[in-house]
Amino acid sequence: MIAISGGRVLTMTGKNYEAGxxxxxxxxxxxxxxxxxxxxxWEIIDARGMVVMPGLIDAHCHLGIVEEIYREEGxxxxxxxxxxxxxxxxxxGINPEDLGFRDxxxxxxxxxxxxxxxxxxxxxxxxxxxTWGAGLEDMIIKCPVGLKAALGENPKRNYGGRKKTPMTRxxxxxxxxxxxxxxCDYMRKTAEASEGKGSPPDRDLKMEALARVLSGEIPLRxxxxxxxxxMTALRIAGEFKIxxxxxxxxxxxxxxxxxxxxxxxxxxxPVITNRAKVELKGxxxxxARVLADAGVDxxxxxxxxxxxxxxxxxxxxxxxxxxxxxxxxxxxxTSDAAKILGLDHRIGSLAPGKDxxxxxxxxxxxxxxxxxxxxxxxxxxxFDIRENGSESGIK
Length: 395
Known about the structure:
Elements (H helix, E strand, L loop, with lengths): L1 E9 L5 E10 L2 E7 L8 E4 L4 E4 L1 E6 L38 H7 L2 E6 L7 E9 L5 H4 E11 L2 H8 L8 H26 L10 H10 L5 E5 L2 H14 L3 E5 L7 H6 L3 E4 L18 H8 L3 E3 L11 H10 L4 H6 L3 H6 L17 E4 L10 E6 L2 E5 H4 L7
Parallel strand pairs: 1-4, 1-5, 6-7, 9-10, 10-11, 11-12, 12-13
Antiparallel strand pairs: 1-2, 2-3, 5-14, 7-8, 8-9, 14-15, 15-16
């Protein structure tokens, strides 16, 4: 039993405490109360003068699947031999020994969504996982948490240069539609066979992955920067009546009304970047504000290793510079991100029954001078700056 006592507690539930105590039992939060409480017999973590908040959630990155140091040996993000690979699973390519996981803890990031890259029109299934655990299986929260797809320049660049489909945006959209249509037929034949009408189709892992999208079990998460690509994703999602999350959504401010009207969610970013490719021509720090004003549910990503995962909090802070309300900016990397992932019953806020994923900082998370002092995941201290000597571990 642990009492994190006396800190400024940001719960992400709408109620904060200038001085509060977070109570932890059996890896879960058992209570959040006002004032300095030090129950007898409990382990006391003195958080006076500190900020206490839920662990940050990076809703889109490539941590462990595109390793920072081993850029060739550790690059397992894209299977560039086939543009349609829905049956691939990011979890099978993640190295939990990637140093990025340690960096995530130093930045207060306790949950990440790891997915394949965007070279393929359909890249494979994404996984939500903690950034610490006894082993990879222990780190998994939900698998799959979405099916990665991509429109725009990346599939064109990877296949068009080899004179293979897709060479155009039309072909990328057609391949996505074709795969979804085949999966619809697969599901129909499977259902008919269960009713004694004909033989079931041979098992097809590609179709099973797509069926999870078509049945509503998981959303299709489509990489799309430009407004026209975003609208293509909306068009296809409408045709097949599937849940959609737009990844990156760089020009989402141009079509924010359409996103809101269609109930489409977004994971925007990376924020700390330049116009590294033509699709980023319209990048703006105001995207988050415009989406918020339109009523679009969204989170902010790092796209690690594009932006180091430990800078997720700073990324959200830059959205404030672009006009986003500060409280909302905190939510898009905590509670709002958890809702988009369908995991808000476990993570994203400090409330009874939630996982005790707690971050203690010596200042506001958007202040570049602030340091993460301590991180708990499921009630266990997994990072302590006093033991590490510094964020990097250099003593």
